[in-house]
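Saturday, quiet lab. Running sequence design on the structure tokens for the scaffold JK sent over.
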């Protein structure tokens, strides 16, 4: 088995484990049981859907003549699933807001440092 195939198998195992954990929690909450075959089917479906998403993301970025996948590519990929698109849109807006707040905070801190540096320079000039 080559390295790519081994990595794919590890990813599949991780997806299967995660789906199994989610199913156990949901089954416990609903007082139902979920068969191992059902968990395997859900895991395989999720893995295949992720593969489709990955290929779509690569295609969208390539179409835009970019090597990097952007948020807009992700939004475009999710456009067929309203709930997923809305969730991604909401998270995108939250990230943009957080990034804006961080930029403003950095700008304020830089201004404070510059002000302190100027005060220190003035004190040094007065002492000379």
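Result came back. Writing it out in full:
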């Amino acid at each position: 088995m080559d390295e790519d195939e081994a990595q794919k198998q590890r990813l599949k195992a991780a997806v299967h484990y995660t789906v199994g954990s989610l199913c156990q929690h949901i089954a416990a909450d609903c007082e139902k049981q979920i068969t191992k075959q059902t968990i395997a089917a859900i895991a395989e479906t999720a893995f295949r859907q992720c593969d489709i998403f990955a290929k779509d993301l690569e295609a969208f970025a390539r179409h835009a003549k970019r090597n990097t996948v952007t948020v807009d590519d992700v939004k475009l990929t999710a456009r067929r699933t309203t709930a997923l698109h809305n969730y991604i849109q909401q998270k995108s807006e939250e990230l943009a807001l957080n990034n804006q707040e961080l930029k403003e905070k950095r700008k304020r801190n830089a201004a404070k440092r510059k002000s302190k540096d100027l005060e220190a320079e003035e004190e040094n000039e007065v002492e000379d």
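Notes for JK: The helical segments are 3-30, 36-63, 71-77, 82-127. Residues 27 and 79 are 30 Å apart (CA to CA). Ask whether to fix the surface positions before the next round.
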